[in-house]
Every structure is written in structure tokens, then in C-alpha cells.
Design a protein that fits this description.
The chain is built from 13 helices and 16 strands. By secondary structure, it is an alpha/beta fold. The strands form four sheets. Strands 3-2-1-4-5-6-8-7 form an eight-stranded mixed beta sheet, with helices on both faces. It starts with a helix and ends in a 5-residue tail after the last strand. The protein binds calcium ion (2 copies). The site of one calcium ion (CA) has 9 residues, from loops.
Length: about 475
């Protein structure tokens, strides 16, 4: 009887624990599937350590988007680098190694948020691209090769008998019955995308090609072989960003030093962080700009590359409605990437917290706050129309933090994202609720106001909300 009682007690305690764990789980933050961005990544990982640094960060946000393809593309041939293969062969085993390390920390990540994919699901979408012979000086901004070929001639890479497992995956994923577009961050060359587009244009009607293209959103770090320019010339209606910034370009060097990387990523943060290499003595991560904007944070709206956010701020290529380039590229070529690195204190803290999630319990780590804008709890931008002279109310009541941290509010006019050239004075910009009056001379312009919500956890974490105000012209 005593044994039975003990057993009953054990069952009761176990059930209580189970219920407690489940209710704690139910509160964990999760991005609804319909709001996640779909991604096929093209990376020349194995050729440049930047891709390994960026892939570490990419996996640390695997709960924030749907990864539907991971394509290892041709590495660049560096004749002087004795540590790397020299023939340009793609290196998919790097992807495997990083995903296996991710698999070892996934159980702990699941204590902090929901939606982390099984490592097997990621391994299943790895594909190998084609060797392109990238070896010569190449103008990453214009896509025009310098001396030498820069790659094998394009007709040796694109055409009727050039399909690969990688190009077939791209087509299959785009054809999938899912209304969401597919984002394609490109960290090296783009031949696999070019061949997929060639195949669809060759085999399908003009209407079906249009439909296919309308689902794609490309964000390339530079033109790293001749196929990028070929794609832009042959498919001018394709949404295509080319940027050559760096995410930490103008950031405080302390945020990307070897010491930062060693302290917050490489040591004592589990096997995935331990795989992240040092590059040129620090954390680079230029390729990371191609996906930072896809992390839902209330600021970035990558369907509007000119709005600015963690993915940078871009402008339309002159003469194009669909192709985007860096804002500063013609004005100040030395300051590329500032539109991203202005947010570096926020996204570096965010990355640091996620590395903590690999090894710490929920109560020992920080988690981002959840902002509310004028009663709206989503992370979407709110767009309204208002008249000059009208008062706009700004209210972050209901904003919360899953760790019960104290919250700090900053309301900021974001002039670069709109087209009003005056200034907006927001009253008491650090109050939870405030407002401002639309100036008379803002008639016909668009204003962007951003709520920056930061908690007092360690490290402090930030989320945002954006209010876009279309000011009516005075005649209306
Ligand atoms: Ca790369
Ligand atoms: Ca928090």
C-alpha cells in the first residue's frame, strides 16, 4: 500500500510538472507560419569564411523563417589560399557540419522559442551547384568582369543540358502551392538561379514565366559571377537587390572584434557557435545583410527595400522598378552599409542573446519584448492617411516582455524612409504614449514614425513598430 501511495504521488508530481512545462511552453514566442518568409539560400560556403560566419547567424534564426533550400555554389579560386580547395568545386559538406552542430543545440533552443526545424529537415534540402571556374578580378558592383574571364563562358553554364539538382530544387520550391514569395539570399555566384530561370523561360508560356518570376525576391551580395547581370538583363521584371555593404561597416569596432566573437559566439555557447571562424581578425558578415531584413522585428519590411531596416535601405536602380541598389553607392562608396550598421547595437545584442539560448535555461537568458502600436499586436507596419494640421496619437500601451523586464520607449521620426524634407517634433519622445501634429508643409508627403522598444535584460533586446502616414494634399 505504501508503495502504491508513493507511486500515486510520483504520478501526481509528474503530471503537475508536465502541465507546468506545457503552460510555460504555450507562452513561448513563435512566428505564425503564414508570416514566415520562405528562403532558398545560395552560398559559396567553404571558399570564404564570411559565409561560415553568416551561416552560423542564419541558423540561429531558423525559427524565424522557412528554409526550403540550401544550395552550395561554386567557391572562388584563391590561388594563394593553401587551406582551401583550389578547383572551385562547391562544398556542401560545410552546410552538413553546421546543421549537425545546430542539431546538438536545438533541444535547448526549444526552451526559448518555438518553430526550430529538425536538423533532418534542413539536411534534406541541401543541394550541390555547379563548378563555375570563378577565378579572375570581377567588378562586384557592376557585374562586369575585369581582366580575365571571371568564370567559364555563360553558355557553358546555362542551357538545355545544364540542369542540376540545385536548379531543379529552385523550380520545385517556387512551383509549390504556397502564396508566399520565396526569398533568395545569394552569398556567392548566381548561376543556379540563372539556369532555373532559363529552364522555365524555355519550357513554359510567357504567362507562366511571369507567374514564376513574380514569386521570387532576390537579395544578392554583389555580382559575384557574370550570371547576375545576365539575369537582370534577361528578366527585368524580377525583384532583384544587389548590395555591396557590410552589416558592421560603421558599427562600434567593439561589436565585431575577435574578443566579441570569442566571448559571445565561439566559446561556452555550444557546438554551433564553436564552428564560427574568425575572418580577417574579426566578425565580418557582409553576406548576412541578405537575410537580416527577413527576421520579423517590426522594423524591416523587405517588400519595401526603400523603407530601411536590418536589411539596409536601398533605392531603385535608375530606369528600373524592380531592381534595387545601395543608397550610397554613387554618393559615398566608402560608406556602404551604414544603413545597416546604424542598427548594429540592436542586432548584435539579438544575436548574442540567441547564442545564450544554445546553452542557458529560459530564466537565465533574455528574450525580446513584444511591442503594441495603437492597440495592434502584430509586427506589421500600420499605414494611415491623415491631413496636415491633424494630431497623430502614438500609443504603445499593452507592450510587454516575456521576462517581465522593464521597458524603454523611444518614438523616432525616420526621415530617410519617407519623402518629407522638414522635421517632425514628437512630444515627450520617451513616453509610452505621446503624439505630434502633422506640419502644414507635409501635405502630399509620406512620413515614417518608428517606435523603438528596448528591455533592460542582459543583453538588452529591441523590437520596433512602424507607423506610415500618407499626408493628404491640401486640396483633398
Ligand atoms: Ca560568400
Ligand atoms: Ca526580455
Amino acid at each position: 500500500m505504501k508503495q502504491l501511495k508513493t507511486f500515486a504521488f510520483f504520478i501526481a508530481v509528474s503530471l503537475t510538472n508536465l502541465i507546468f512545462v506545457q503552460s510555460a511552453r504555450a507562452q513561448l514566442q513563435a512566428i505564425p507560419k503564414a508570416e514566415k518568409h520562405r528562403i532558398i539560400l545560395l552560398t559559396d560556403i567553404g571558399g570564404d569564411r564570411d559565409d561560415e560566419q553568416s551561416f552560423t547567424r542564419f541558423l540561429m534564426y531558423a525559427d524565424q523563417y522557412d528554409i526550403e533550400g540550401l544550395i552550395a555554389t561554386s567557391i572562388r579560386i584563391f590561388p594563394k589560399d593553401k587551406h582551401r580547395p583550389l578547383d572551385g568545386e562547391p562544398q556542401p559538406h560545410y552546410l552538413v557540419n553546421f546543421i549537425n552542430a545546430y542539431g546538438k543545440v536545438r533541444d535547448n533552443l526549444l526552451k526559448h522559442s518555438e518553430g526550430w526545424p529538425e536538423p533532418e529537415a534542413l539536411l534534406a534540402v541541401i543541394r550541390k551547384g555547379v563548378k563555375t571556374g570563378r577565378d579572375a578580378p570581377f567588378n562586384i558592383r557592376t557585374g562586369i568582369s575585369g581582366e580575365g574571364s571571371g568564370h567559364y563562358p555563360l553558355d557553358q553554364l546555362i542551357g538545355d543540358d545544364k540542369d542540376t539538382e540545385a536548379t531543379e530544387l529552385i523550380i520545385k520550391v517556387v512551383d509549390r502551392d504556397d502564396p508566399r514569395p520565396i526569398w533568395i539570399p545569394i552569398w556567392g555566384g548566381s548561376v543556379e538561379l540563372a539556369q532555373a530561370l532559363w529552364r522555365v523561360r524555355n519550357d513554359r508560356s510567357e504567362e507562366d514565366l511571369k507567374k514564376f518570376i513574380s514569386k521570387l525576391r532576390v537579395y544578392a551580395w554583389g555580382h559575384q559571377d557574370a550570371s547576375g547581370l545576365w539575369i537582370q538583363e534577361n528578366f527585368p521584371d524580377l525583384f532583384y537587390i544587389v548590395s555591396t555593404g557590410g552589416i558592421l561597416y560603421s558599427a562600434d569596432p567593439k561589436l565585431h572584434s575577435k574578443e566579441w566573437l570569442d566571448t559571445h559566439v565561439r566559446f561556452d555557447h555550444g557546438p554551433l557557435g564553436a564552428l564560427c571562424p574568425i575572418r580577417h581578425g574579426e566578425l565580418g558578415g557582409a553576406d548576412s545583410e541578405t537575410f537580416l531584413g527577413l527576421i520579423p522585428n517590426g522594423l524591416s519590411e523587405m517588400e519595401h527595400p526603400d523603407w530601411g531596416g536590418w536589411g539596409g535601405r536601398l533605392k531603385k536602380q535608375p530606369g528600373s522598378e524592380k531592381q534595387w541598389i545601395d543608397v550610397e553607392s554613387n554618393l559615398d562608396p566608402d560608406n556602404l552599409g551604414h544603413t545597416i550598421s546604424r542598427w548594429a547595437p540592436h542586432f548584435q545584442n539579438d544575436y548574442q542573446a540567441r547564442l545564450d539560448w544554445c546553452v542557458k535555461e529560459f530564466a537565465e537568458a533574455n528574450h525580446p519584448p513584444q511591442p503594441v502600436l495603437n492597440g495592434d499586436t502584430s509586427l506589421d507596419a500600420i499605414e494611415i492617411t491623415a491631413k496636415p494640421g491633424e494630431r497623430i496619437e502614438l500609443d504603445a500601451s499593452g507592450s510587454s516582455d516575456i521576462d517581465q523586464d522593464e521597458l524603454f520607449y523611444t518614438w523616432r521620426f525616420y526621415p530617410e524612409a519617407g519623402n518629407y524634407f522638414g522635421w517632425i517634433d514628437i512630444e515627450n519622445e520617451n513616453n509610452k504614449s505621446t503624439g505630434f501634429v502633422i506640419p502644414k508643409d507635409a501635405a502630399g508627403t509620406t512620413l515614417h514614425i518608428v517606435l523603438i522598444l528596448t528591455d533592460d535584460g542582459s543583453p538588452p533586446l529591441t523590437r520596433y513598430r512602424r507607423l506610415v502616414i500618407h499626408c493628404a494634399s491640401l486640396k483633398e
